[in-house]
Amino acid sequence: MIAAARVSGLCLALAALGSAPQAGIAASELPPGVAGALESAQVASANSAIVVVPLDGGPLNLARNDAAAMNPASTMKLLTTYVALSTLGPDYRWRTQVLANHRPVNGRLDGDLIVRGSGDPSLVIERWWLLLTRLRALGVRDVGGDLVLDRSAYADVQTGGPTIDGNELRPYNVAPDALLINFKTLSLDFLPDAAAGLAHVVPTPELDGVRVPNRVPLSDGPCGDWKEQLQADFSQPRALRFGGSFARACGNKTWHVSLLTPDEYALATFRAIWKASGGTLRGVARQGVAPPDAVTLLEQESPPLSDVIRDINKNSNNVMARQLFLTLGAQSAPSAGTDPQPAPAGTEQDLASAPAPQRAAAARSIGAVRGFLEQQGLRMPELVLQNGSGLSRQERISAASLAQLLVHAWRSNQMPNFLASLPLSGVDGTMKKRSAAAGAAYVKTGYLADVRALAGYVFAASGHHYVVVALINDAHAPAAQAVHDELLDWIWRQG
User: Fold this and answer.
1) Average pLDDT, the chain
2) Global confidence as pTM
């Protein structure tokens, strides 16, 4: 056991939660393996923070630089998902509605078809297909007007803007959208066929009006940077081109890209699905707002929040996390000066009688998170929030604050769903290929160019349970994964 050295900021915070006897006095001296890994990675001492807290009287207790405000990268998702579970509940669901000015007659809708989103993070292509297939099953065949996309659940329609790394093609940079369909992403599967000397290119989903080459030549040599070798030209997003080749050594590969605007993507997927089912759309896609007297033709619910946060945390899905973060503000109690969205007319009774949510905006979400923390007695004076996903250069939190959040979650009735959402080392999610404390560490990882982060729980071999938080903000952070692996193994062996 590491000798006690000082009273940490974490201990004071945990004392406020009533855990002082367990937290005790935390040591600041690092285990030799962890200290050696930090030195090998050339990470400056002041640029790393580590906290280990026993949850049930275990012998390990460590706090180093725990009060420093640091960029947490994707471990910030722990705050967003836990607040969501606690305030919205594990069975919270988003609803996507299909509306019209009047009901169709004999399969024909003389007017616009309106699709109103509520920020569903899980409206993937399969669920979009199901919604439109159910609409066809109701007898709707011909739409004489436009496809109207109602994104009014968000105070400001997001149109993109600067991304964190300047690569707008990457799906994790897709902007939040109240009607986000399939993350606005096209997946290109490259399947080598040695006998034919080519790789088949299979696009998913089908995008009406978008041409994708169905094959590229195979080449010998190492896989290497296979995307670069393809010499892709996406300058014309409706006519993709590949000027290079695909190395047979690569095996099957998938390239996810975001090429179209939200309206273009919605129309391209709608037309492909609608035409395949025998339907017609005479108009175009445009943004608009459903009139108060619109008739609801169909509604579709998302999976429950407990399922959604598994996708967010295990796969570190930034877009879903940002959608969830915005939902926190929309579903919080309206405050003075806000503009609550009117309840849609023509909806079912439970919707019509429910309190109208506010229109989602980041400022409201930040207020909702801070309100929850204050209500729970979780003091985080250094906390800086931007989008709740960690895909940010501005967001900050201390290792002590993350640790007290994890202790609070452990003691809450949301613990089973929260724990189940975290990647399990050596088993799944972003920890699937990590062998440290395999099968015993439920931890969220975080990566940015100069950030490596890890936070969660370790079930030690002794049977004791621990909270662990480790943050590195340093130019050498990419070389420091061994620091976190050593820490996880140390807790599992010595705890």
Assistant:
1) 90
2) 0.90
